[in-house]
Structures are given as structure tokens and as C-alpha cells.
Target: Zinc carboxypeptidase A 1
Amino acid sequence: KSIMRYLLILMGVVAAIWAEQFSYEGYRVFRLHISNENQLRALASFNKDEIFDFWSSLRFDGKPTDVMVKPETQQILGWFLTATGIRYEILIDNVEDAVQKERIIQQRASLMPEGISFTKYNRHDEINAYLNQMVREHPDIASLESAGKSYEGRDLKVLKISTDPSANKPVIFVDAGIHAREWLAPAQACYIINQLVEVAENRKLLDKVDWYVLPVVNPDGYEYSHTHERFWRKSRSVGRICNGTDGNRNFGFHWGGAGASKEECSGNYMGPSPFSEPETQAVRDFILKYKNNIKLYLTFHSYGQFLLYPWGFTAELPENSEELQQLGEQVALAIRQVQGTTYIVGSSTNVLYLAAGGSDDWAKGVAGVELVYTIELPGGSEGFDPPPEDIMKYLPETWEGCKVYNQYIEEKFGK
Model:
């Protein structure tokens, strides 16, 4: 009887949670095959009011572009694609079905024993609990520092991983989850922690290099994407018309430039002023505090399979672009050798599009971090992120790339 009662309570809780969720019933995901510059420009112009939600980047590099479309605009998009000759297929016929499927797997995984898991997407409280656990169980190399709090008061915790904090070693700083819906990114950050702290054979990576990891930059949005609106992207700060700011358009280096929107309801809204969000302030202040030691900044996103370096505000290249390209190609090779996953390496603007106000450009252009990369992880075939059971298909391969970064920083900056 007690088991049945427990199951009934659980079903009631799940039903209540699902009732709050935004419904994507009838939404479709179109997979577009753009073959020339004219088609690219036409589609960008057609979407100037952001009536479509691009899940992957608008490009014609041989990779398709995925776009989620509301029921009321699907016919309009179909006419446009036919008129411009853009080939397409329906990747997801009903997005709500994919969301429900993911939600069921997540709920099933939540019944497992407490603790971090790499076969589900962990909630923010679970991630912070994991950071606390690492400090308790491995106080010889793990310590916590607060980077501040989110708009809604959640703790922004950085795990500092070092065998000797007094040794003044070069630092690799990692953050993830600035965009709420990109759930694979915090999972990757946690896996990096797992490998550095819990796997004894990796301790040698810490001989001459320290790692600092902030797994979720935007915990308010991240939680909202779990509990209310799966494809929410921005922060949760309260606006006049619409809530939230795109944290990756909110940094104060060429803020408000191309690729950033002044419209509050846009997914790319740049905010009312540079660093208007407490989350971007936290990243800024933490990097500035350790800027003399941070030699590499890695910021994880999804999806697209790109290794991007500055600049995002211009097509011009930074002074060390050759080094950034060569190192990126070494990392991409290490990832590809695991199971054939290919990453495109290049500057943000030249590989993707103009996007001013990003954390990567600011870290290099203002804080002076020498080596900076935005890593766009793989996506899922039936949803935005890989299904929970496929998470471990991707985390280990990216870790192999991280080891290449570690070796490079050790050889160039290690004492």
C-alpha cells in the first residue's frame, strides 16, 4: 500500500508540473539545406522579425540548418522555401511529442538514487550539490568560490581544481549554460569536473595547470527551461514587455553591435545596458579577478559542432588567429579520433555569423585572455539536445579535446 501511495503522489506531482509547461503542440522543426549565399541572405531577411526559432546556425557550409516553426507560420515558411529553392525535410513533426518523451525519461531518471548522473540532465540544485560533494570528498584538490548570485538568487559556484593553490599556475576557466536550453553544456562542464577530480590517472594534468569551472552561468533560465518552457534561451530578469536577456549579447565589448537585438522579446535581446544581468557581471568579475592567471577560456554551448574563436563582432581576425586556428584543429582532431565526430574550426563571424556582445570577445578584448574558444557541442536527432541516454556518447570525446588544451597550456605557460 505504501508503494502504491508513493506512486500516486508522484503521479500527482508530475501531473502538476506538466500542467505548468508551455505546450509545443503542432510546432515543427524544419531541416533546411541552404546551398548558396542568395538563399542565405533571403532567409536572414525573411526572419528579420524573428518569427522562426533557429536551433542551429544559419549557414551554407554543407551542414543543414534546423529551425522550429509555430503552427501558424509553417505554411508561410513552406511557400518561402519553395520560392527560393531551399531544400528541406521535416526533422520533427510535432515538437511536443519530443519534449514529452524527454520529460518522461528525465522523470524516470529522477527516481534513481540521488547524486550526479550522466544519463540524465541534472537540475541546478543537483549540480551545486555535486560541487559541494567534490569539496567534501577531495579537499586536497577541490575548493569552492562564489561568483555571486543570479537574478532570482541562485548561487553561482565555481569549483577550483588545483593540487597547490599557492603555486600561481596558469588557469583554464570553463563556463557553460549561459543559454538556458542548451542542457548538454552544463553536463559537459560537470563531466570535466568528474574527470579531473574523481579519476586518479588524470591528476597528472594538474601538475602545472589549474582548472576553474562554473557549470551553469544562467541557472534561472536553466531551471525555467526544465519546469516551464523547454526552449527558453535567456535569463529571467523582469522586463517591461518580455522577460530575459541573452547573456551572450550582454557583455560590454562592442555591446549592441551586429547580431544583437534591441527588442526585449527577441531571443537575442542584448539587455538595457552592458552587464545589466547579475550573471554576466559575475562572469566578468571572476575573470577580471584572475585575469593574470587565466590563459585559456572555454565557454560551452550547443549545438552545431564548432570550435570558435574571436571575433564575433567583426570578420577581422585577432592578432594570434593562426595560433588559435592551429590549436583548435588539434583539439578537433582529438575529438574526431574517438568516434568520428567532426568539428569546424574558425572565428565566430567567419564560420557562423556576426554576434556582438559575447563573453568570448569580451574575455579576449577586455580581460586580455590570450586563448578563447566557444565550443558548440552536438545536438540531438529528435530534439534540441541528445536524448538523456545518449549524453555519454558525447561527453568523453569532448574531454579528449580538453586534454589537448591542458597539454598546450602546460607546455606554453607551465613552470
